[in-house]
């Protein structure tokens, strides 16, 4: 899909509105994905720093948060400074994060005992000036809580990523509730790149940008994070695409259930 | 064997058991000892180090046993246990405990209890047993038979007395005082009197540097959270000023709030690094106000730096060379006081092929090491706390499963990588001598990727049960 062409009048109006909203006081900059397809869809050409972003997994990943965790780790790996990872369930495997570029020395884990603690620590960390990114795994995220987090992130300029991870598949419908986050992503797995030899190829994800403030929704098919945390566009060869089609439909069904 | 200088000669100061068996004694010139035993291992004595060690040990005794403790150089510690022995089950039990504890930390100690410092000193060094107990009033009888070296006299006086033919304390005490004082000075009489208890001798106790403490009394009891917060902000700056005088930073801070009904509320905050920043400490304390129960009111607040450590100043990185890494220790402290210090951690690599043993938790502010996990094989994002058994169908010995059933869902496998064989760590125990795990990375038809393994190599029964487990989730 082509990126929307720039319109100066609209840009000026947007700037005026954001000034009125009191957010344009400090331009925080963005963290681009390095993929023009995605960056073109996001306002300012990347994930806004000093903002809260939401990531959830599609299908079973809403419970396991493996793909969404890796996606978030890839984003955090491309920031500078320490990364704080707050979670109630301690099942993250650090060697995997190192493989997407998030080294163990940079990552500090917080084992919170409840969602309330997670949110409190999340807000506290977002207010701190020295962190590159703060990642928190939460189930429920109310409008009030997300608003507080967003304001905290605005004060410091840290990148906040809330991984939505539920205990039960039925709770995952909670992702439809509105929050104050700037963008909202859903990561679903697609069958991996077919190799000419037996083996598992590079994983592929269906990235859905469900909500973007001052932007539009979009879907992207990408190849999973590489060793530096970067995504890559799918190099679909025709036979593989044909072979993958039924499985993609199955993935669509799973998301529909989620 | 320890050697040191005494005047212009190098003499032996201390010998171990083996050297003692060879017949070496303290006081022998080093050259003579070396001539007798050329392969002697000689180390230089370190009197300053000994003194510092004694003082540390004295502080430990002060902490554990009795309040009045002093080092008794060169090799002893003196305690005034009056009024403290009953806390430790009587004098005999207390001595036994002390000697045992010291022995556990590698120090061979002898102990004695007597009425006077001089007598205890003599008995501990020249008494018969490892532990000597002298009942009150029997001191003179107990020490009469000891050699005069036990009297803490300078070596030349001892030599002179030996020249006179006096070698025991009893006969020395019986000789007339005046000629002794005329010949050797007042020391002999003084030490004798001190040993027999005719002259008092004070023990000047070692003293821990008193912690920095500030307090405030209130004419009217306070109870509102805002008021407490205001007075915390007033107490912290003088505390920090006190710490600055000592060039220290606080590691543990205790705020005691004495209530009007004579109960005490306590708030303790801890920091990962020594801190002397007024704002940070105020913030840490104010975070904890909610746990204070003021009751009918608080009439006195005491703020104590109960654990302070020197602040090490470090040269900052020049902005020209590299960008300075932001300091997150204040955030760590704030979070640690909310969720607990052990809930904040980093992962560090461990050299092990067994996946669950390859990571260990280290404190969040532990020094960074540059080791990394090997990057040969993909690792799952989520590792299950314990591997979950799955039902599979797989071709033996080394094919990945065709399908597996996990948590009631049957998944057909589209493609797989493996096996990655992990052997048991035989050095950890006999059970792991032959065990083997074969890991496969499998992807099902929907694209979800799992990490499954089989215990055993698929051929030999002793390598494992050949059952299948799911250990991690890639994505």
Strand-and-helix sequence of chain A, N→C? Answer: HEHEEHHEHEHEHEEEEEH
The total beta strand count of chain B reads 19
Oligomer: heterodimer
Shape of chain A: globular
Distance between the termini of chain A: 26 Å
Total of helices of chain A: 8
Biggest pleated-sheet summary of chain A? 9 strands, mixed
Strand-pairing-aware structural class of chain A: alpha/beta
Helix count of chain B equals 13
Structure write-up:
The complex is a heterodimer of chains A (258) and B (475). Chain A has 258 residues and is an alpha/beta fold. Helices cover 33% and strands 24% of the residues of chain A. Chain A has a single domain, classed as P-loop containing nucleotide triphosphate hydrolases (Rossmann fold, 3-Layer(aba) Sandwich). Chain A is built from 8 helices and 11 strands. In chain A, the strands form 2 sheets. Chain A has a 9-stranded mixed β-sheet, sandwiched between helices. In chain A, strands 1-2 form a two-stranded antiparallel ribbon. The radius of gyration of chain A is 18 Å and the shape is globular. In chain B, 28% of the residues lie in helices and 30% in strands. Chain B is built from 13 helices and 19 strands. In chain B, the strands form 6 sheets. Chain B has a 6-stranded antiparallel barrel. In chain B, a hairpin with a 4-residue loop joins strand 17 (436-444) and strand 18 (449-455). The two termini of chain B are 65 Å apart. The interface between A and B is large, with 60 and 53 residues. Strand 5 of chain A pairs antiparallel with strand 12 (344-349) of chain B. Chain A: This is Damage-inducible protein.
List the helices and strands and how they pair.
The complex is a heterodimer of chains A (258) and B (475).
Chain A: H1 8-20, E1 30-31, H2 36-39, E2 47-48, E3 51-57, H3 61-64, H4 66-77, E4 82-87, H5 94-99, E5 107-111, H6 115-127, E6 131-138, H7 143-156, E7 159-164, E8 183-190, E9 204-212, E10 218-223, E11 232-233, H8 238-257
Parallel strand pairs in A: 3-7, 3-8, 4-5, 4-6, 6-7
Antiparallel strand pairs in A: 1-2, 8-9, 9-10, 10-11
Helix pairs in contact in A: 6-7
Chain B: E1 2-6, E2 9-14, H1 17-21, H2 30-36, E3 43-44, H3 47-64, E4 68-72, E5 76-80, H4 91-104, E6 111-113, H5 117-126, E7 131-133, H6 139-143, H7 155-163, H8 169-174, H9 177-184, H10 187-196, E8 213-222, H11 225-245, E9 248-259, E10 264-275, H12 278-287, E11 298-310, H13 329-339, E12 344-349, E13 359-363, E14 382-394, E15 401-406, E16 409-423, E17 436-444, E18 449-455, E19 468-473
Parallel strand pairs in B: 1-3, 6-7
Antiparallel strand pairs in B: 1-2, 4-5, 8-11, 9-10, 9-11, 12-13, 14-15, 14-19, 15-16, 16-17, 17-18, 18-19
Helix pairs in contact in B: 5-10, 11-12, 12-13
InterPro entries (chain A): ImuA, P-loop_NTPase
Protein name (chain A): Damage-inducible protein
